[in-house]
Predict the structure.
Amino acid sequence: MTDYVDSWYGHSIRVELEPTPRLEGAHRTDICVVGGGITGCSTALHLARRGYRVKLLESERIAWGASGRAGGHVLPGLGTGMDTIAKGLGRDAARAVWDMSLEGLQLVDDLVREYEIPCDLRWGYVHTAIRQRHMKMYREWVDQMATEYDYHDMELLDDHGVRERVRSDYYIGGIHEPRAGRLHPMNYTLGLARAAQSHGAELHEGSAVTRIEPGEPAKVYTEYGQVEADFVVLACNAYLDELDPALRSKIMPVGNYVIATEPLDEARVRESLPTDEAVSDANFVLDYYHLSGDRRLLYGGQVSYNGREPRNLRQRMEAKMTRIFPALAGVRVEYIWGGWVGITLNRAPHFGRVGTNVYFAHGYSGQGMAMSGMAGKLMSEAISGQAERFDLFARMPHRDFPGGRHLRTPLLVLATNFYRMRDLI
Ligand SMILES: Cc1cc2nc3c(=O)[nH]c(=O)nc-3n(C[C@H](O)[C@H](O)[C@H](O)COP(=O)(O)OP(=O)(O)OC[C@H]3O[C@@H](n4cnc5c(N)ncnc54)[C@H](O)[C@@H]3O)c2cc1C
């Protein structure tokens, strides 16, 4: 079992779990969840509170994967535009998917309140524009969401409007979205896990699943134990690795990185984010940031498509931050970390079943904070016999990444280079 990556999150944990012993020996349960991120913990919570016996197996620690490393921005919608969903599923279904994404936001809010999860949840969001074409894109987006999705919670900002919220000369305008926000993702995930335990779910850390034998019941194996279960839920996202090679060909791990500064004094907060809202820009490889509960600037943005950490990562991240906020020059960066984002070819999440009783949900493509919790809720509904909403997502067509296991990375790098170049123009 590997300990948490050295992030600010790991140094600010405020949720304690009941013991989570390694799985040993043979067990029988109703549902076996594999993976202890938001998807897995939300699934375990929703099923346990419906009265099912649940065992969750996590190879490392709860929130060890993307859920404990993310920027923590909580947004409606998906990692792709709604047009992709409308193309794949039709307009009515796309509208239902959008509404479920809003339900995902409400779910975060409800769970944080109900289970008193100390995760610094705060609503209020600014999308910033760097170039005129971003403003054009934003105007079309606001208009489309209002007319086609009846969503009116996005207000266009001009250069003065954006500057009131983000004290940078870098932006020419933006969108204010009060319904989006941010949280401490590790405390949120641990809070869901603790809530699942309070309803009787049994969690096992240090319990990597090595093999799943299909059948009714299915058999799930770890090095030291075995679980027979009526249903299995795969919630491993970008960390799935070889557990299911057919599923793995549909998602691809992409590295993403975050830095945390030392806590900022009041003057520096006023000179950077006076309204204390979360921010991201409109670039293809986007920068995103917000103030933590203890007033650090958490700044994310660098990506790696080839599996290797970018060279001079710390310097590059610091340079990005001070380009936006020259007033932060000289502020110490205390933590830097990264993790795998699971992307799909069309950037829509990939939900479905293997056979009849192995469920999966992954591939949130960088926008999983709210949707992964919703996936857990939808899988619990489906396992309880109400599968319509889960099946709506499962109908979305997905293709394998071209090039197979070894060639897909260079092909993806080539495909994304065009967009990365365009960010510079
Ligand atoms: C740096 C970074 C920044 C991000 N920022 C944002 C953001 O601001 N907003 C947003 O919406 N999304 C963001 N994301 C994406 C978001 O974090 C994910 O979509 C979400 O956390 C996915 O949750 P999950 O539970 O599906 O996967 P994970 O949290 O990755 O959990 C999967 C778990 O499965 C476990 N596992 C894997 N294989 C096995 C096995 N064989 N046996 C047992 N356990 C196994 C892993 O150890 C891991 O803990 C970011 C991701 C990263 C990496």
